[in-house]
Automatic annotation (TrEMBL):
InterPro entries: Bact_solute-bd_prot1 (IPR050490), SBP (IPR006059). It comes from the Bacteria. It holds the Pfam family SBP_bac_1. It comes from Brachybacterium alimentarium. This is Sugar ABC transporter substrate-binding protein.
Length: 528
């Protein structure tokens, strides 16, 4: 390890004004001296330094989280490392407004912890030298992370920019949950009351909703959801077209747009018929979370079925056993299709080092401390003795929460998050999932995973040119598709307007966006 070194921030020739980056926007080479040796940087292990060292971190945190320095785990980090952190983390919304002003100014923190940076911002601030390239620092000062990246080239590819540099460290949690973010839940109490069976086809489901509407008294909402992206599995069952919230999937290595296919058209046309029959909540395209969950907790009970992440959050724990997961319905060809979302388990932006940091080597050693599997588990769910304990098998498991508190409420109070990696293997050898996560894993394994319909778009970091193309066009595509889906389901007219809609997508630039995503996908595939 080099304890005192000069690290180079190589230039990236980018001429993209859209992202605020111009060609030669910084010197071709800029060096910053690392003074870690001056504070007694050790060769390995703990402490990291033998002399006093204070670093300043900025970034995002949950609005419900206390100040990080008051957390037991954060106190442990300081004791173990010998490095004091001054935490300037702000609630997510505040940080979202503040970060660009901070990064554009000269008064930078030494590092960003839970940076909240988009890929475009990483490209911008990496190119202009605000964020330093980390790959050499990782190799020389982060043995735990280096070993993981050697074993998992997909994680390395996900955090590597198109210029070949790594500007941020990852946060990884491989539970297998986020690919199927919305499940369909049905009121089985009402099924029993009406003498009906759990539906196994979309036609049977339609008939159940109709029975709920006609035979259950008191303002029934047969089907409710919060967004058209929630009903991808229903679209696949009716029209045979796998879909997700982005309307972008991967099939046999090809990036495919889903909202311009005949199967998609046919599904939306059929859902208009459902809407005219009164089977779909009229507020499904406009309601927010608060409005949606209030319907699940109303008295008398009103929800016949709904799409959401889990049951208790919508209807409350006292009604949770009134509902059950609905199996995936076969499509027109008899194939069951569980649509896979593009939500990622490998996330960028968990940690970054700014160019004003004079102790980059020590800072990277500090970050590497968090990638040890048991420490990553504690960063994610809280410390041993507070929210987790070792069971008889030597695995970390959740300590039951106290009365009146949920697992999520406790989690944000005791776990700071940040850079961490908890792999699928770690869930077998290091830590057990939270009880609610384990329940959801079982539901996915039984009802969804066997019918996986598509590949998700991987955690690709687009190039600046690709980001420029996507950011210019995709928002207009999303607006058009979202508005048309809602209009066609509520008012109809898709058959008459379809050809014009498909032409409009092309005129906006759909082909260009798909080409950008395909190029990025191909580049990612080459390195995994």
């Amino acid at each position: 390890m080099l304890s005192r070194r000069r690290f180079t921030l190589s230039a990236t020739a980018l001429g993209v004004t859209m992202l605020g980056i111009t060609g030669c926007s910084r010197p071709s080479e800029r060096t910053t001296e690392d003074l870690s040796a001056d504070v007694g940087l050790t060769d390995s292990g703990q402490p990291i330094v033998t002399e006093e060292l204070t670093l300043t971190f900025g970034g995002a945190k949950s609005a419900l989280a206390p100040e990080f320095e008051t957390m037991e785990l954060v106190k442990t980090w300081q004791e173990d490392s010998g490095i004091e952190i001054v935490w300037n983390n702000e609630p997510d919304e505040v940080w979202g407004e503040k970060k660009n002003l901070l990064l554009a100014g000269g008064d930078l923190p030494d590092a960003l912890f839970t940076s909240g940076l988009s890929d475009a911002e990483v490209a911008k601030y990496g190119a202009n030298g605000t964020l330093i390239a980390l790959e050499d620092l990782i190799e020389e000062n982060a043995p735990t992370l280096t070993a993981i990246l050697d074993e998992r080239p997909d994680i390395k590819a996900a955090i590597t920019a198109s210029d070949g540099h790594i500007y941020t460290l990852p946060s990884v949690e491989e539970m297998g949950l986020v690919e199927f973010p919305r499940m369909l839940f049905l009121n089985t109490d009402w099924l029993e009351e009406l003498g009906l069976e759990m539906p196994t086809t979309v036609e049977e489901y339609h008939d159940v909703l109709l029975a709920f509407k006609e035979d259950i008294p008191g303002g029934v909402l047969p089907l409710s959801f919060m967004d058209a992206g929630d009903i991808s599995d229903l679209i696949a069952a009716i029209g045979g077209q796998p879909d997700n919230h982005d309307h972008r999937i991967v099939e046999d290595g090809e990036v495919v747009f889903t909202a311009n296919t005949e199967g998609f058209r046919d599904a939306i046309a059929e859902l208009h018929s459902w809407y005219t029959e009164g089977l779909i909540d009229q507020e499904s395209f406009s309601q927010d979370y608060v409005k949606f969950v209030s319907k699940g907790k109303s008295d008398p009970e009103t929800l016949g079925s709904f799409f959401f992440w889990e049951i208790p959050e919508v209807v409350g724990p006292e009604r949770a056993d009134h509902y059950a997961v609905v199996p995936i319905f076969p499509g027109p060809d008899g194939v069951q299709r569980a649509c896979v979302a593009n939500n990622q388990e490998i996330n960028r932006g968990a940690f970054a080092i700014t160019h004003t940091n004079e102790y980059a080597a020590a800072t990277m050693r500090w970050a590497d401390m968090l990638f040890e599997p048991a420490m990553s588990a504690q960063a994610n769910w809280g410390p041993i003795g507070v929210s987790q304990e070792l069971n008889a098998d030597g695995l970390l498991e959740q300590i039951p929460v106290g009365e009146g508190e949920t697992e999520q409420e406790r989690r944000v109070k005791v776990s700071p998050g940040g850079p961490k990696i908890v792999t699928a293997d770690d869930f077998e050898t290091v830590v057990l999932p939270e009880p609610r996560a384990a329940e959801r894993q079982a539901q996915i394994a039984e009802f969804y995973e066997p019918h996986r319909a598509n590949e998700k778009y991987p955690p690709v970091m687009l190039s600046v040119d690709e980001l420029n193309t996507v950011s210019t066009i995709e928002a207009d595509i999303t607006t058009l598709v979202t508005e048309k889906i809602a209009t066609w389901i509520v008012k109809g007219g898709i058959e008459q307007e379809w050809d014009g809609y498909v032409s409009q997508l092309e005129s906006i630039g759909l082909s260009e966006v798909l080409a950008a995503y395909q190029a990025a996908y191909d580049r990612f595939a080459e390195h995994t």
